[in-house]
Amino acid sequence: MAADLKAVYLIVGTDTPKVGRAVARLRAHFPETDVERLSAREASGEDAVAACNALGLFAGGARLVLVDEVERWKAADVQAVGGYLADPAPETVLALTGNAKPDSALGRAARKYGEVLSYEVSKRALPRWIAEEFKRHGARADSVACTTLVELVGDHLDELSFEVEKLAVWAAGEAIDGEAVQRLVAPRAETSAFAMTDAWGGRDVAAALAACEGLLERSLRPRRDEVPRVAVLLANHVARVRACQRLAAEGSTPREAAARLKQHPFTVQKAFAHAARFSEGELRGVVSRLAALDFVLKGGSRLAGELELERALVDVTAERAAAA
Prior knowledge:
This protein is an alpha/beta fold. It has 15 helices and seven strands. The strands form two sheets. The chain has a five-stranded parallel sheet with strand order 2-3-4-1-5, sandwiched between helices. A two-stranded parallel ribbon has the order 6-7.
């Protein structure tokens, strides 16, 4: 065991990939045969203490006791661990992970006798976090790519980390843009641009406005910069729906259209479903309204851009607003 290791580590935080890497770094100091892993689902604080003391009876090397899900422990468990830490077994490290708070009783005990490693990331900081993950993998991704990945996957960091690694391998040193992310990542976020476009395709005004607000709220950009981007996302989807409507009229299936358009089958399937809700004339009217929105967002109106976006979204979504 490295001489500078502490008797205890509490490793917690919402940034689960970083938590995992911190645990892996700690485990690397010990042979696998000298690591015992417990779960607070079954193991009490006294069980963890017993494991530390039992391992300490063996001569010839350092040991690691790793306990997961320590947020499940009650006061008696924390008290047992705190008592042990006052006089820990030599050459034994106790590592605790889970959703325990750094300022909890367990966190205070860990800080007193060892170290607390807390890795946090807020939802608003996810695009920046993704950019750092790409950089860690030696890849380059623009801001649109990072934001698009959040929109498609959501805020599950382990899934985001997996997609970043996948995209980095695919890019092989080339820059990654938003179009590549849309093409290669299956959408599954609960709140994303797809929520807004789905609501538009379903002619659900309330849901479209709520999804739009979710996009604006989550973005790191100022709203004056994010509003035009959201408008472009909607315009791009409408263009895709028009293309799919034409292909459907020619007799193409969604799978065939996905191959011709070189887009993800899931995205094209959605576009086909939306195309069925609009006539050709209605889609022309939507395109005209979004062109007018583009004009006002570029200085053609004194109203706030957010308000102009909401007005346009109502116009292009509501049945009553459809062009003849």
